[in-house]
Write a structure and sequence with these properties.
Layout (H helix, E strand, L loop, with lengths): L1 H14 L12 H8 L1 H12 L6 H5 L7 H23 L3 E2 L2 H15 L11 H23 L1 H15 L4 H15 L1 H6 L8 H24 L3 H19 L2 E2 L11 H17 L18
Helix pairs in contact: 1-2, 1-3, 3-8, 5-12, 5-13, 6-7, 7-12, 8-9, 8-12, 9-11, 11-12, 11-13
Length: 291
């Protein structure tokens, strides 16, 4: 159902001439509709099977923040800027906050978008203000935007697959999550000019990232914790790439090799801390308290 809706939306848009030359401003509304696929499928299946478990329980819509929500907010910021540093170690040139801010100003002028930051702010001040805005307002705004994905991946699908074990369930979710991106990635999203290699990179990234977000979902006891991580990652990723100068496609940002290396290190930490196949919360899964 998810693939049928999302890929069907993309196919209709492509037939009408969109995505033929990459992913630009004109394609953004279609991408927003594309992203709704997982949520629609999750809601439909949950309602159809509501006798087995409630909607809140199945989708993980628990509103009870804990300290893991703080990690779900802070870790993506570390990963994004850490990815830029790893890229530098690989030979990519980094520019300072002043140049990065000027680059942001040019992008803002080209796009003609309204911003919370006054147009008079530029240079290093613009860069730092953009980071703060992305890490605060942007993170929580994107939290609800990415909920359209997370209701499917770390909501419905997580509740159905989690009993087979932490690593197996997140591995399967990562594969489905990554492949689902294929049409947008093939069209140039995230990795412009790299079609099939971009798709393979996205699948690899999603499979590697799935245990990290899965841990936020599990320890945060809510799909909203996973959505907060995902939203913060999306909000900070674009800002952090402004530090990179003429970076190769697969080294340009958190979704490139720099980010992937850090995510794999995080996976290793999770593996060493939690034995694969074991429940991280044996006393609370799947009987979580609904709020």
């Amino acid at each position: 159902m998810t693939f049928g809706f999302s890929w069907g939306i993309f196919a209709i848009a492509y037939e009408k001439g969109l995505f033929r030359h990459g992913v630009g401003i004109e394609e953004l509304p279609t991408l927003a509709a594309f992203m709704a696929g997982p949520a629609i499928a999750a809601l439909v299946l949950t309602i159809l099977n509501r006798r087995n478990s409630g909607i809140v329980q199945t989708l993980g819509l628990h509103i009870r923040p804990n300290r893991w929500w703080i990690l779900a907010w802070g870790l993506p910021i570390i990963l994004c800027f850490g990815a830029a540093l790893v890229s530098k170690l690989a030979g990519v040139h980094l520019q300072g906050p002043v140049a990065a801010g000027d680059a942001l100003a040019r992008v803002r002028e080209q796009l003609g978008r309204r911003s919370l930051i006054p147009l008079s702010v530029h240079g290093a001040k613009l860069f730092y203000a953009s980071v703060i805005a992305a890490a605060t307002f942007g993170s929580f705004a994107n939290m609800f935007a990415t909920l359209t994905e997370e209701l499917g991946w770390r909501g419905y699908l997580w509740s159905k697959l989690r009993p087979i074990g932490f690593w197996k369930s997140n591995g399967l979710i990562g594969i489905v999550w990554g492949v689902w991106h294929a049409p947008a990635i093939y069209a140039g999203y995230n990795y412009p000019g790299e079609r099939w290699r971009g798709v393979l990179m996205m699948v690899l990234f999603c499979v590697s990232m799935a245990p990290v977000i899965g841990l936020m979902r599990e320890r945060g006891k809510s799909v909203l914790a996973a959505s907060l991580f995902h939203g913060t990652l999306n909000g900070i990723a674009g800002i952090s790439t402004m530090l990179l100068v003429n970076a190769p496609v697969f080294w340009n940002g958190a979704a490139g090799w720099g980010g992937l290396i850090l995510v794999l290190i995080t996976d290793a930490i999770i593996f060493l801390r939690y034995q694969p196949g074991s429940y991280l919360l044996p006393n609370s899964y799947p009987q979580e308290s609904a709020v």
